[in-house]
Design a protein that fits this description.
By secondary structure, the protein is an alpha/beta fold. It is 39% helix and 15% strand. InterPro entries: FAD-linked_oxidoreductase-like (IPR029041).
């Protein structure tokens, strides 16, 4: 019986500098417990890289603050998550904001509703947090986007509610000097992303998009996270790969997706945001490899 060759897939050919342009300003996401395992972020990413800090329910604010301070001290731009549904009230929100600013020099934040079904207090969405004024003076605010919808918000599978929420945030950006962008859930296929980007423009939503992409990871890992996070039609990309025994044990990489987008990039996609589901080092190495092939 012939042996199956499980060698790593060969890199895609260069795309005439477009991949390098797409990866310019790329960001990455960490959690405090995963960041603690990284000996040096300087060895992985360029100085000034934006690093989102995911705030999972149950994570003490002290761990979030310590991670933000460490990233700032190492020369990075920390952007902590503020999930409305795990914050009791405006007073707690303001306390967190002031501590982030005072203890870690935080100037940027990702505001989102959060995955908790029942809010712990009176806050449940990003606009409520924005309207408290707690983030006045911040250099940049990002809000959540869902290229393939969000059934927690639109149970029918549509996007009426999520699009209406983005319009409210766009209205806020229009009437203030807030520098805002949309950071999205990850997807695996360029077509649905392009279609969603076009619908944003058609709805008058001009905030630039920081497109979520899953970094290199085992296929089983990506399938688990994709199902848990409600990834939509593009999940079929992973399912198709799972049926190919020659690829089943290879790490899945975002090369095809980003090459496709680099060659035909929607004008409102400003940057790529990496979810390092297969590890921070693997994602950092993949980014460096792609830049090296340009």
């Amino acid at each position: 019986m012939a042996l199956v060759n499980f060698r790593r897939e060969a890199p895609r050919p260069p795309v005439n500098g477009k991949m390098e342009a797409l990866l310019e300003g790329a960001s990455v996401e960490v959690m405090p417990r995963t960041a603690a395992k990284v000996e040096s972020f300087r060895a992985l990413f360029a100085p000034g890289t934006r690093v989102y800090i995911a705030h999972i329910e149950g994570t003490p604010i002290e761990e979030m603050l310590a991670t933000a301070k460490r990233l700032r001290d190492e020369g990075f731009e920390p952007m902590p998550h503020f999930p409305a549904r795990i914050i009791r009230d405006a007073a707690q929100l303001n306390d967190w904001v002031q501590r982030y600013k005072g203890e870690a020099g935080v100037q940027q934040a990702l505001l989102l509703g959060g995955g908790v079904k029942e809010p712990v207090g009176e806050l449940h969405c990003a606009m409520q947090m924005i309207e408290t004024g707690a983030f006045d003076g911040f250099a940049r605010l990002h809000v959540a986007g869902h290229p393939e919808g969000n059934r927690d918000i639109d149970p029918d599978g549509g996007e009426a509610e999520v699009m209406a929420a983005l319009k409210l945030k766009q209205d806020f950006a229009n009437r203030t000097d807030a520098d805002m962008a949309i950071a999205t859930q990850f997807a695996f296929e360029a077509g649905p992303i392009r279609d969603w980007a076009a619908r944003l423009e058609a709805n008058g939503i001009e905030m630039p998009v920081h497109l979520g992409v899953a970094g290199p990871a085992k296929l089983q890992t990506l399938l688990k996270f994709a199902i848990a996070c409600g990834v939509g039609p593009s999940l079929k990309v992973l399912q198709k790969r799972a049926r190919d025994v020659t690829k089943l044990l290879l790490p899945f990489e975002p090369t095809d997706l980003l090459t496709d987008l680099a060659l035909d990039r929607p004008s409102n996609i400003e940057a790529i945001h990496f979810f390092p589901l297969g590890g921070i080092t693997a994602t950092a190495n993949w980014i460096a490899e792609q830049r090296g092939h340009e």
